[in-house]
Amino acid sequence: MSYKLILDKIECREEFLISLKYHIRGIAEYFYTTKQMEVEVGNWFWMASSIDQIFFDGIRYDSAFEMCSSAHEYEIDKNNLHEKLINELTLFLYVYSGFESLLNKLNLKNCEFRKGKINSATFFIKENFSIKYNTIPKYKESLSLLRELVNKSALSDFEKYFCLDECTDVNGVGIKVVYKLRNCLVHGDYSFPEPNEWFHSFPLEPEITKLCTRILLFSIQMLLIADCENPNNIIELSNSEVIERNNEGEFMIGEYDFLNYYHIKRMNKSKNQISLFQ
């Protein structure tokens, strides 16, 4: 499969989802509305969803830029790739920090088979979400696509984290994979990609990072559903950018319905007015 066909496949999957910005914003809206968690958790998602563009200039001090036409093309391609990647990495790290903040508030019990906060999170999903609810729409498809992408990239060693264990079922696997990405970044083990046609593997790191952010958001939604005391509880948002007003002009919706479906967009609707499937 060519690089272009891979990108087309990713874009096709995105057609069914609201933009990543609004997906993140929905989590912030939930925290600000329910008051079940302190607003500090929601602030991570609000700040992430408010980032429009990060400017990156990797050429300014590069003496090789004007050496020849090939060097010129290479440096421009690399700069564009790295700017795209830096934007996706920034969003990912903010969302991951929000995820960690949520875990601190939930104070989950340890999985008896494996220690650690991440194993506690996957075990909580396994024991409190998977046995009661269907998987979040588009989660499994996203996880499958992520596995396909990492196998075609320089991050192919991530493939071994797509596995089940005593603490983790399929709904928790996504957390294990994004945790690996987070560790690569914070421990300095991450290698920045080279542009397409200049290296032996496809530069899919921006797409992989964006997909990891999506999967982390799905995982957060599953954690929040599992933590609901009454999933049928009606929540009222003071304002919303991810759901429409009801017939009474209010942003009211069932807590489970919001957490399970708000990221899905209805076809033939304005991009600025995302609605839920009826």
Give the key terms.
278 residues, mainly alpha, two-stranded antiparallel ribbon, 3% strand, globular, disordered C terminus
The gross shape turns out to be globular
Provide the residue-averaged pLDDT.
87
Proportion of strand residues: under 5%
Report Rg. 20 Å
- Note the total helix count: 9
Structural class of the helix and strand makeup?
mainly alpha
Question: Could you characterize the architecture of this molecule?
Answer:
The structure is a single chain. By secondary structure, the protein is mainly alpha-helical. It has one domain (about 5-260). Helix content is about 55%, strand content about 5%. The protein has helices at about 5-15, 20-35, 40-50, 70-105, 115-130, 140-150, 170-185, 205-225, 255-260, and strands spanning about 235, 250-255. The protein has a two-stranded antiparallel ribbon. Helix 4 packs parallel to helix 8 (about 205-225), helix 5 runs antiparallel to helix 7 and helix 7 packs across helix 8. The longest helix is centred in the first third of the chain and has 38 residues, at about 70-105. The protein is globular, with a radius of gyration of 20 Å. Residues about 265-278 have low confidence and may be disordered.
